[in-house]
Structure to design on (231 residues):
């Protein structure tokens, strides 16, 4: 079945540093979604990408939909303590197929 | 943004009992909702797709008679864990699909999750 490879699995950074994580797949996706999950909570949507090559920002977050439709990255600039959590990428194969395929997650830890 | 609620947020039950979890889309209608299960330090695992007015579609390996899903309205889906056992203890999360035809956007919004502990 379809799989998403998300990396890195974990990151330990200093407050104020920039963060970059990415997802790749052998399958083509029509939609990429990036979520953040805090402990004991459900995932919260950060950025949704619908077109190949699309670059979208949400505050300090920037994400891009790879031109091949097989990858996406998420960048966080000037990290702050509340950025701590687990970040998941998710891809949708075909609009209308509905199901999401999730990456393994990137656990972000920030040292103040 | 779109809001999805779940109830209860946590539940503790005895082995052999049944537990019902509700998932509601509060400010949009969702013809499709999804139920996921998440174990500690793991990603989300899709259990089933819940379609309003029709039977749910279960993923391979998920027992449909154990995890009963009902999607009675455009804003409510329920998951019932029947005859629960300790191995059913997990974090159950629902999501609701927000499809905006005119904007050609298709996004899933997640509920806050339900922590189930079976003694």
């Amino acid at each position: 079945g379809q799989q998403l490879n998300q990396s890195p699995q974990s990151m330990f950074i200093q407050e104020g540093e920039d963060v970059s994580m990415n997802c790749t797949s052998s399958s083509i996706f029509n939609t990429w979604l990036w979520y953040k999950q805090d402990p004991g909570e459900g995932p919260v949507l950060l950025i949704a990408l619908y077109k190949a090559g699309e670059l979208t920002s949400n505050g300090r977050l920037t994400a891009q939909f790879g031109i091949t439709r097989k990858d996406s990255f998420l960048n966080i600039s000037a990290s702050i303590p509340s950025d701590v959590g687990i970040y998941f990428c998710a891809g949708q194969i075909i609009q209308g197929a509905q199901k999401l395929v999730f990456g393994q997650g990137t656990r972000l830890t920030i040292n103040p | 943004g779109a809001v999805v609620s779940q109830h209860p947020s946590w539940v503790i039950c005895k082995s052999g009992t049944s537990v019902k979890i509700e998932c509601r889309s509060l400010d949009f209608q969702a013809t499709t909702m999804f139920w996921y299960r998440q174990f500690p330090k793991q990603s989300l695992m899709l259990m089933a797709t819940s379609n309003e007015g029709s039977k749910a579609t279960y993923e391979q390996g998920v027992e449909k008679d154990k995890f009963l899903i009902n999607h009675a309205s455009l804003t409510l889906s329920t998951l019932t864990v029947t005859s629960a056992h300790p191995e059913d203890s997990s974090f159950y999360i629902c999501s609701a699909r927000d499809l905006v035809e005119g904007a050609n956007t298709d996004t899933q919004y997640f509920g806050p999750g339900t922590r189930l502990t079976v003694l």
In short: The mean pLDDT of chain B is 92. The interface with chain A takes residues 1, 4, 6, 32, 34, 43-44, 46, 49, 91, 93, 95, 97, 104-113, 115 of chain B (CB under 8 Å). Residues 16 and 103 of chain B are 46 Å apart (CA to CA).
